[in-house]
């Protein structure tokens, strides 16, 4: 049975073009027959290539999502996508994936590189998510070394041009592919692609140009956030390379369940129990809300399962804390299983006044009739 193309690439069905390309490149490098000689690697590589050529084509992907592999049976019959003159960017992309790029003779650019983004998962109590506030967290991230200012070289020295690649960051080698022989560029093994070599390394960072640092941050939580809300803290990811900007920190929020309240959109749900007499006669009782105690009016004749509303006592809308949802309270009516002798006499009198027949079921049947039982 054919495997799902998304599963083959290890991506979700909502993955965008960049996610697909990253996953494809990673797997293609791992399973390409010129690199991986293990049994089954070539078949795996063909499977990966087939999945990518379908999912990277918007029209083919739409057909696949709708009809499965039957909808793309005519795509990529040779195992490689067909490229016209206008598709040379994609053609070059595949070769860059397999072999590190074509030999063009130009110097590889080694400019500033943005640092990686970081993810942090933060748990909130129910009321913290409702009303927001500040939370202090501790993160570990890479910061530019203050001793060498990110160069990786000992103060007073500078990195020198790599003698292996002449500063290009890449070296040439010939390779044979299904399309013929090509001269390819691969990352220089001496400088790791940077084009420079550090002879006297910075003692603080060991030549890395950055250091792992633990720091505390105060995160502002907006009122009304919910499970899965993502907050971006600009510039608190890992430091960039060669003077590049740092990445960002993404804080993912997870709200712990509350024993008393539930959330449904911007509304809060809870339940209360009242006696049958309170339900019959009506009353005012105190109830718990996220704002504290409030008074709830129970109308006379309230039925079990009735939902009463406290307007504006729900969750604030994110970005507009003045606008709040409602607090919806479901009423449970408790029917006693035992009553005192005096209570029974009074209830029997009431049954006679109402003309209720006290047959099988007795008093409990009468009480049930009051609430539609």
Write the layout of secondary structure elements.
Layout: H1 5-9, H2 17-31, H3 41-55, H4 58-67, H5 88-99, E1 118-124, H6 126-131, E2 133-144, E3 160-161, E4 170-177, E5 180-187, E6 196-197, E7 210-221, E8 230-233, E9 249-255, E10 262-264, E11 267-275, H7 276-281, E12 283-289, E13 292-298, E14 307-310, E15 316-317, E16 320-324, E17 327-334, H8 341-353, H9 362-370
Key terms for this structure?
24% helix; 373 residues; 4-stranded mixed sheet; alpha+beta; 3-stranded mixed sheet
Strand content: 25-35%
Distance between the termini: 55 Å
Instruction: Provide the low-confidence segments as ranges.
Output: 76-109
Number of strands: 17
Helix content: 10-25%
- Provide the residue-averaged pLDDT: 83
Tally of separate helices: 9
- The rounded Rg comes to 34 Å
Overall shape: elongated
Helices and strands, in order, run as HHHHHEHEEEEEEEEEEHEEEEEEHH
Note the main sheet: 4 strands, mixed
Secondary-structure class? alpha+beta
Biggest β-sheet: strands ordered side by side in the sheet: 10-11-17-14
């Amino acid at each position: 049975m054919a495997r799902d193309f998304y599963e083959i690439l290890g991506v979700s069905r909502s993955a965008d073009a960049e996610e697909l390309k990253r996953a494809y490149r990673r797997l293609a490098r791992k399973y390409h027959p010129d690199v991986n000689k293990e049994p089954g690697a070539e078949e795996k590589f063909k499977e990966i290539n087939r999945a990518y050529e379908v999912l990277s084509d918007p029209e083919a992907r739409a057909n696949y999502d709708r009809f499965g592999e039957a909808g793309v049976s005519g795509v990529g019959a040779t195992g490689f996508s067909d490229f016209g003159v206008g598709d040379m960017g994609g053609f070059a992309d595949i070769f860059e994936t397999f072999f590190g790029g074509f030999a063009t003779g130009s110097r590889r650019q080694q400019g500033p590189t943005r640092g990686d983004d970081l993810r942090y998962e933060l748990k909130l109590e129910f009321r913290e998510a409702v009303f927001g506030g500040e939370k202090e967290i501790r993160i570990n991230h890479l910061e530019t070394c203050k001793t060498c200012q990110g160069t990786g070289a000992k103060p007073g020295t500078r990195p020198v041009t790599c003698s292996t690649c002449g500063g290009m960051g890449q070296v040439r080698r010939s390779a044979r592919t299904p399309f013929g022989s090509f001269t390819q560029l691969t990352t220089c093994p001496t400088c790791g692609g940077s084009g420079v070599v550090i002879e006297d390394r910075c003692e603080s960072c060991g030549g890395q140009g950055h250091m792992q640092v633990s720091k505390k941050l105060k995160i502002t939580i907006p009122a009304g956030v919910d499970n899965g809300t993502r907050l971006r803290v600009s510039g608190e990811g890992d430091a960039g390379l060669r003077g590049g900007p740092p990445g960002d920190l993404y804080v993912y929020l997870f709200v712990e369940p509350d024993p008393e309240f539930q959330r449904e959109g911007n509304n809060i749900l809870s339940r209360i129990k009242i006696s049958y007499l309170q339900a019959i006669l009506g009353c005012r009782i105190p109830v718990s809300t996220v704002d504290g105690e409030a008074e709830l009016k129970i109308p006379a004749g309230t039925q079990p399962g009735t939902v009463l509303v406290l307007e504006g006592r729900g969750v604030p809308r994110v970005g507009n804390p003045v606008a709040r949802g409602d607090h919806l309270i479901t009423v449970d009516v408790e029917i006693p299983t035992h009553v005192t002798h005096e209570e029974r006499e009074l209830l029997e009198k009431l049954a006679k006044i109402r003309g209720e027949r006290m047959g099988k079921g007795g008093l409990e049947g009468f009480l049930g009739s009051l609430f539609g039982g």
